[in-house]
Amino acid sequence: MTGRYKAYSEYKEYNSAWFDFLPSHWQSVSLKWTSHLYSGGTPSKDNLSFWENGSIPWLNSGAVNQSLIEKPSAFITRDAFNNSSAKWIPKQSLVMALAGQGKTKGMVAQLAIDSTCNQSMAAIVPSKDISSRFLFWWLTSNYQKIRNMAGGDLRDGLNLELLGSISSPIFDRKEQQKIANFLDHETAKIDTLIAKQEKLIELIQEKRQAVISNAVTKGLNPDVPMKDSGVEWLGEVPEHWDRSRLGFECSVKARLGWKGLKADEYVPEGYIFLATPNIKGSDIDFENVNYITKQRYDESPEIMLQENDLLVTKDGSTTGTTNLVRSLPEPATVNSSIAVIRSRGNIHPEYLYYFFVSTYTQNVIKRMQGGMGVPHLFQADLRWFHILLPSNIEQKSIAKYLDIQTAKCDLIIKKATNAIQLMKERKTALILAAVTGKIDVRDWRPKGIQ
User: Fold this and answer.
1) CATH number of the domain at 242-389, please?
2) Per-residue model confidence (pLDDT) at position 371
3) Beta bridge partners of 28
4) What's the confidence (pLDDT) of residue 376?
5) CA-to-CA distance for 241 and 347, rounded, in angstroms?
6) Do domains 29-168 and 242-389 have the same CATH topology?
7) Could you tell me the CA-to-CA distances from 390 to 230, 321, 353 in Å, in that order?
8) pTM of the model
9) Which UniProt keywords apply (predicted)?
10) Which residues have C-beta within 8 Å of that of residue 303, sequence separation ≥ 6?
């Protein structure tokens, strides 16, 4: 990182968990001495009038995902403010999530507006000697360390005392602001590049899906005569294709409810027991699995997996997730959330896989589960499912064509994903180098500005 940028001329060592050394003219100080720290409050949700036609901005902990907060989570009334522990936080100040789901805890954002916040957030109002923007970058660079201060249990929250103990550098405010300006500019450039790669991935994924859907519903020859499929949302299909039901062409099996297993029945070694997370990738994950006893494996012979079985999740938010058993390293079975679909010979397994991941099939699955509190696919619904049947030779041709086309798309997606990861790593390293003084950006100017 220091290759493109010069270092400071002199450093001094620190025996600190927050930095090993700093430029010699910088100092280390606890956050509680440089900033006013306080938490907010939530007006009673039982009093609906507190939340109707309010004019006072109010934030919940999820607001920190905005980085720069320009819009509040809600508005509260003056009466709500007076009857709660909510407090005003001036704009330009920082807020940090003390608790929250997923990655929220420890995230920091800057306010573009005056606001209030809930009790799961801390207001960080720097003194006049501290650049809010520099402090934002400092805290951002220490996100994981700050999260770890709460302890190993992910449910544990941060508190004001812990925040106050965070060490941060202090030095001339103008120099702080130069570092902040540098990071604002350089990270914005990186973010733009990341966004372009993310857009590329999105477009390639859409193209990939379109290629699959077109091939399994229209075939590979655009000049063949077409006929009405008889299915409203499918439209026209090649005239020489047949239509059938999945249950006529395949067996559809799943673990019976009374044979469901509990976690305490898993064993260190035994027979592979696949769950939904194991089939979500491009290939089935046979490594990160649970194991069951031979007795439990033997009691459900109808779902003992074979090569070329199609696995489809039938419960929960991932309903419709599909994968194909292309190889079977060891004897395996599935949990009660996965249906096992096995061709009786008329359907090429790879063609059936692509048919199931097509937009047409995934939309039908959504219609089947519509209105349910917890999404679920019944085996009877799957058996009655319409499928298109080209000749076996044509099925193989379609599958081979899609193998080639999807591999091209997947390669582009992989390269873009790797590029994003490298850019994120560069961004993280750049922020840390700047806020700890490993690089000297006092003379930095944006290109074109002298």
Assistant:
1) 3.90.220.20
2) 56
3) 169
4) 85
5) 13
6) yes
7) 16, 24, 14
8) 0.86
9) DNA-binding, Endonuclease, Hydrolase, Nuclease, Restriction system
10) 253, 254, 255, 333, 334, 340
Q: Count other Cβ atoms within 10 Å, centred on residue 423.
A: 16
| 168, 172, 176, 182 alpha-carbon torsion, rounded to 10° | -140
**What is the three-class DSSP state of 439?**
coil
Backbone angles phi, psi at 428, to 5 degrees: -60, -45
What pLDDT score does 313 carry?
95
Secondary structure of residue 251 in the 3-state scheme: strand
**Integer Cα distance of 122 and 105 in angstroms:** 11
| Sign of torsion over alpha carbons 439, 441, 446, 450 | negative
- 66: tokens are 């905005």
Q: How confident is the model at residue 449 (pLDDT cuts 50, 70, 90)?
A: low
**Confidence bin at 235 (pLDDT 50/70/90):** confident
CATH superfamily of 29-168: DNA methylase specificity domains (3.90.220.20)
Residue 227, beta-bridge partner list: 237
Return the closest-CA partner of residue 434 out of 143, 132, 176: 176
pLDDT of residue 230: 82
Asked if 292 contacts 305 with a C-beta cutoff of 8 angstroms, the reply is no
How many Cβ atoms from other residues are within 10 Å of residue 12's Cβ?
12
pLDDT digits (tens, 9 = 90+) for 19-59: 999 999 999 999 999 999 999 999 999 999 999 999 999 99
Q: Is 382 exposed, middle or buried (0-12, 13-18, 19+ CB in 10 A)?
A: buried
Number of H helices, E strands in the chain: 12, 23
| Among 325, 320, 283, residue whose Cα is nearest residue 304 | 325
Q: Are 54 and 36 in contact (CB under 8 A)?
A: no
Residue whose structure tokens are 């696949």: 274
CA angle, 94 then 167 then 23, to 5°: 105
DSSP 148-194: HTT-S-TTPPP-HHHHHT-EEEE--HHHHHHHHHHHHHHHHHHHHHH
Percent pLDDT > 90 in the chain is 84
Q: Is there a contact between 138 and 92 (Cβ–Cβ < 8 Å)?
A: no
b/e sequence 172-183, b meaning 16+ C-beta within 10 Å: eeebbebbbbbb
The residues spanned by each domain of the chain are 1-26+171-219+396-450, 29-168, 242-389
Q: Are strands 11-13 and 21-23 parallel, antiparallel or unpaired?
A: antiparallel
Residues contacting residue 42 through CB under 8 Å, at least 6 positions apart: 84, 86, 118, 119
